[in-house]
C-alpha cells in the first residue's frame, strides 16, 4: 500500500510548492527570525536595566544622606561614561 503520510516531509512540501507559497514561507521565516532577535534584545536590555536599578538601590541603602547618595551617583555616572567611551559591552545605555 502506498502510505501518503510516510512520504510527507517539510522539505518535499516546500520544494513542490508554488513559487508564491515559497515566497510567503520565506517571508514568514524572516519575520520569525526578526521577531526573536527583537525579543532577545529587549530581554538583554531589561536585564541590564534591572542590574542598574539593583545597583542604585544598594547605593541608596548604603548612603547616610542625600548628599552622599548624589556623590556616589556622580561617581557611578562617571564610571559609566568612561565605560561607554571605551566601548564596554557591560555598560547600560
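Sequence proposed for the structure above (93 residues):
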Amino acid at each position: 500500500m502506498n502510505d501518503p503520510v510516510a512520504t510527507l516531509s517539510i522539505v518535499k512540501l516546500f520544494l513542490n510548492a508554488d513559487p508564491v507559497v515559497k515566497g510567503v514561507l520565506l517571508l514568514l521565516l524572516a519575520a520569525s527570525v526578526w521577531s526573536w532577535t527583537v525579543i532577545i534584545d529587549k530581554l538583554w536590555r531589561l536585564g541590564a536595566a534591572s542590574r542598574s536599578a539593583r545597583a542604585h538601590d544598594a547605593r541608596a541603602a548604603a548612603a547616610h544622606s542625600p548628599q552622599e547618595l548624589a556623590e556616589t551617583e556622580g561617581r557611578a555616572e562617571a564610571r559609566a561614561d568612561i565605560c561607554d567611551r571605551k566601548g564596554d559591552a557591560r555598560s547600560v545605555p
